Amino acid sequence: MESRLETLRWLSEEYHDLNGTQYDMVEEAPTPLEFSRLVHIARPVLIKESAVPEADDPEKWSKKWLSDMMKDREISVAVTPNGRADAVTRGPDNKIYFAEPYTDKMTMQSFLDTLSSGEQDSRAGTGGEVHYLQSQNGNMFSATYYDMSGNEDPSEFEPLRDFVPSEIPWCSEALEKSPDAVNLWIGDEKSVTSIHSDPYENIYTVIRGAKHFTLLPPTEGWCLQERRYPHATYSRSSASSELELTPSAPSTPLVRWSSVADPTAPGALPAEAHPIHITVRAGETLYLPAGWWHYVRQEGFTVAVNYWYDMEGRGMSWVWLNFLRGTEEPPLGNEEPDSGGAAVGSQ
């Protein structure tokens, strides 16, 4: 085990010596050939152009426009008491769980009324609960949409589909595939995305507000203290009751997740970690390569769309990502001693 950790430390330091913490910035969308080279390098790139046409139109994507477009259609909204959906959280029994949010059904207007309008505006909200539109796995377009068999692909956000491209031409041509999922995200500064990695090439475009990304390369996954946690979901017994963290059945598989609650906090990461901080503002797009760890905060009322393209499984990429993350199961999170500021506390 110690020998493997030494190998990972050496790999991460070699990678940092070669690449540093810099990232590329380009003024306009790349050509398919240029993007294929970026994928080969697998470093984050900030593109100073939106992947959504007319995203800068002041008449579109405002709260009023979204409400008018969606009218009385109900949408699925994630609700938590602390703004940390899909994150490790200490339960009332003092055990740490991987907690999924409660999903509420509401109109777009009702949802938007819970969100702040600016970075410092915390007046909005219902009973201290935090609402975030984060229904993933293709809430705008799923893989079924691209299936030539004619299968239907219903979306809660059907009225918005005319304003969001189903794919990005320069990306689809370079990767020779369509997206696996296109997702719409709407929230405010009260919601935080816990640090994690995805096996997708991620094209993330911000339409309103700003997203603050803290990134670590796959070579620094060993810094994030992954553990295995029991699964739980927020629930409530009635529409008016407070949210409760409800553990799942004992037979539910444990969830592997980082125990670092906030990688931006002092002392949360070891000195060998080299986080990269990128702010993506309205009208900009981030290319986030597959396997990169990311922690995300928002600035005020924020609207974003992302495109997940499945990573290439042939060659060495998938093998390397698995090796860097670890070939053995990590320890149990609730049997580990307190590791100070890096581990999850009361959230």
Automatic annotation (TrEMBL):
Pfam families: Cupin_8
Matching SUPFAM superfamilies: Clavaminate synthase-like (SSF51197)
Domain JmjC: start-end pairs: 142-324
Superkingdom classification of source: Eukaryota
PANTHER family, per database record: BIFUNCTIONAL PEPTIDASE AND (3S)-LYSYL HYDROXYLASE JMJD7, HYPOXIA-INDUCIBLE FACTOR 1 ALPHA INHIBITOR-RELATED
Name of the protein this chain belongs to: Clavaminate synthase-like protein
Species annotation: Lentinus brumalis
Taxonomic classification: Eukaryota, Fungi, Dikarya, Basidiomycota, Agaricomycotina
